[in-house]
Amino acid sequence: MSRPGRLLRYVLARLALAPVMLWLLATLVFLLLRLAPGDPVDALLGTRASAAARAALRAQLGLDQSLLVQYGRFLLKLLQGDLGLTLTNQQPVTEVIGQTLPASLELGAVALLLAAVVGLAVGFSGMARAEGRVDLAARLYGIGTYALPSFWLAMVAQLVFAVWLRWLPVGGRFPPTLLPPVGTGFYLLDSLREGLLLGDWLPLQGTLRHLALPASTLAVLLSGIVANALRLNLRRAMASDYVEAARCRGLSERRLILRHALPNALLPVLTILGITVASLIGGALLIEVTFSWPGVAARLQEAIGQRDYPLVQGIVLVVAALVVAVTVTVDVLVALLDPRLEF
Fold first, then answer.
1. Would you say residue 56 lies in a domain?
2. Residue 43 maps to a domain
3. pLDDT exceeding 70 applies to what percent of the chain?
4. What is the pTM (predicted TM-score) of this model?
5. How many domains does the chain have?
């Protein structure tokens, strides 16, 4: 079979496995939520409510049914694209996710972009002089930022830049004195559009000021992974046979790095960036809580505390679908760019 045919079969296989992975995850989340200690009725009514009120609410929420019946209803609604209603205020789960997910996506996208730029710059700078001071500093940066606790770095950033220097706001997503931009829910895009159409650039300035601190903090935590990956793979590529052959042909070191070593070293970095999307979930939770960022991770924490089963299930499934989509896309891109891979 030709390579395009094998690639198509590989892509179709990955796409076919994605629903199975999501179903297994949905089942696991469904069971763990109901086996965990705590009762959503207690979270809604308190422990002093009467037995009749508790029974009525349990029947209203469908929690009086057997676990198998609840699971069947959950899967049936899921196949119809219905994530259900929240237990706390009977709001559609898709509506809650639609209100909070753009904030998390915006924060994660900007943080990933900054992490890629900083990580590539730090990792590439180590090649200027192997085992020199710059290389040692790049190595220490990669190890140090990877080991930093996210909540500690977030509080230090708030203390320095928001409290001492007063350069940036301590938290929130938008200045409370301004009306948020209306549109897609992505404040960067919406405020930029308002600036271009109406000439009002204050919303964009407020958005950037509130986004700068949490995005930079999250980017620092992720950039060390990119820096170490690029440094190691670039060092390995420079010691490979094809680079040695190119060096024997009289090519300059600059051209060896940029034309031969760097493209091959970036392929594993692309894979790592795709995997890093999954790690954004855990890191973004602490970042969003610390900076009072109204994203989906902070809303997930509230839903877990309230034992809001449908909201927790919906958020986990939507985030998992995004992670699966990103990883499949990255795998396909790597397969397209690297002809050495076999499927």
1. no
2. no
3. 93
4. 0.86
5. 1
